[in-house]
Structure formats: C-alpha cells, structure tokens
Amino acid sequence: MKRRWVPIDDIEPWDYMHFPADNQYGFNVSQKDDGCSLEEHVKQIESIKRILSNGQKIMPILVGETLHGYKKLDGFKRLMAQKELKKELVECFICSIQDQIEHKEYKFHGMTMECRLGGQNKGDFRFPLLEGKELPNEPSIQEIKTLYFGVHIRIELCENFHIHWGKLGKYRLELGRRDFLELADAFEEAKIYE
User: Fold this and answer.
1) Does domain 2-127 have CATH number 3.40.50.620?
2) Residues 64/93, Cβ–Cβ less than 8 Å
3) 165-174 mean pLDDT
4) What is the mean pLDDT of residues 155-181?
5) 3-class DSSP state of 69
6) I need a labelling partner for 173 at 20 to 30 A (CA). Which of 12, 35, 159, 184 fits?
7) For residues 139 and 154, is the Cβ–Cβ distance under 8 A?
8) How far is CA 22 from the centre of its chain?
9) CA-to-CA distance for 162 and 140, rounded, in angstroms?
10) Residue 120 to residues 26, 41, 147, 148, 185: CA-CA distances in angstroms?
11) Does residue 104 contact residue 1 with C-beta atoms inside 8 Å?
C-alpha cells in the first residue's frame, strides 16, 4: 500500500452504495447497503468541510488502483467534502490491484485497513495532528513525533519520516531512515537552518 496525493478527478467515487443523482447534492445513497441516509451523508460532509476549512487534517481515503486511475474503496463523504471545497489533490492510501484481489490488510495508527470496498474501519474523520499541535482525547497521537515544526515546514516521524510543506502541509515527502539522514546531512553541509 502506498500513501500519496492523487488528483481528485482521477478518483471514481461511485459504487452500489453511492451513485450519481439528479438532485441538489449530485448523488444519492442506498441506505439499506450503506447504513446512513442521504441526509446523514450531507450532514457529515458539511462537518468534514468545516474540519478542513479550519486547517485540520482528515484521514486519507482508501482507493484502489484501476487500469484508468483510482476507484474509491472507502471515504465517500471525505472525498465529496473535498470535491465541494474544490480541492485538486486528495491524500489517499492506495491499494494495488493485487492487494485488492487478496483483500490485503494494513495497519495504520492502530486501525486495520483492508483493500476492499468499505475497508477502513474508523471512529473519526479527523487525523490525529493539527499543524503540529496535539489534539485532546486522541490515543493515537502518541504515534506521531514532530521532529521539527517551523513556519512553512514540519518533519514528522510516524510510519516513516515525512516532511510536510505548502498550504496546510498538503505536500508530503516520504523518506526512509537512510534517505532522511542523507537529506539532513545535505542541509548541514549547505548550512541551511531556516
């Protein structure tokens, strides 16, 4: 599984639970299959939009690779909220075609994700970090260590080393330990500290 920013237009959002509709929302829901009504979806989408507008991160959605892009596996409301906010990129956990065939499982912050439709079981949309500040009552916050938090950049150690930069930290560079140390040495040699 990879974690990447994906162009939002490359993600197919529809499935048998969520489908396009000619109504004011542009979609409808099979409440029998999904468990939530259209009204509950709309309410949660508005809540996620507020979270994003306040600069808070949300859990990346789960998508599967296809021959022509990506198909949403889990995170319809998170995806639609970002569409409504006119986001160009969406942070995703990406399952390969083989991962989907095998229904492969991955762990992230104590949560098990399975490469299948509805494969993320989570209790909250929010991601346990708000621009370098800890959120209250979030047990998985201990799994993220902020190694550096500057005005325009932060470096975190979680599932690997990664550097966030740009507006709301939307750009992300993932590095293994060796690559991270080489980057740190390069900065030291160039005497770049700020």
Assistant:
1) no
2) no
3) 72
4) 73
5) strand
6) 12
7) no
8) 28
9) 17
10) 24, 17, 28, 30, 38
11) yes
- Is 127 in a helix, a strand, or coil? coil
CA distance 166 to 183: 19
Q: Which amino acid is at 27?
A: F
Q: Where are the domains of the chain?
A: 2-127, 144-194
**Can you give the length of the chain in residues?**
194
Tokens of 23: 């109504």
The pLDDT value given to residue 136: 43
Digit-coded pLDDT (tens) for 172-191:
777 777 777 788 788 778 77
Identity of the residue numbered 87 = K
Strand, helix or coil at 151?
coil
Average pLDDT of the chain, as a whole number? 82
Question: Nearest 5 degrees, angle CA 155-CA 160-CA 161?
Answer: 25
Please name which of 9, 18, 58 lies closest in space to residue 38, comparing C-alpha atoms: 18
- What's the rounded mean pLDDT across residues 65-82? 96
pTM over 0.85: no
Residue type for position 123: G
- Please report, as a single letter, which amino acid is at residue 114: E
Least confident segment among 68-77, 107-116, 184-193: 184-193
Burial label for 87, CB within 10 Å (0-12, 13-18, 19+), is middle
The tens digit of pLDDT for each residue in 91-112 reads 999 999 999 999 999 987 677 8
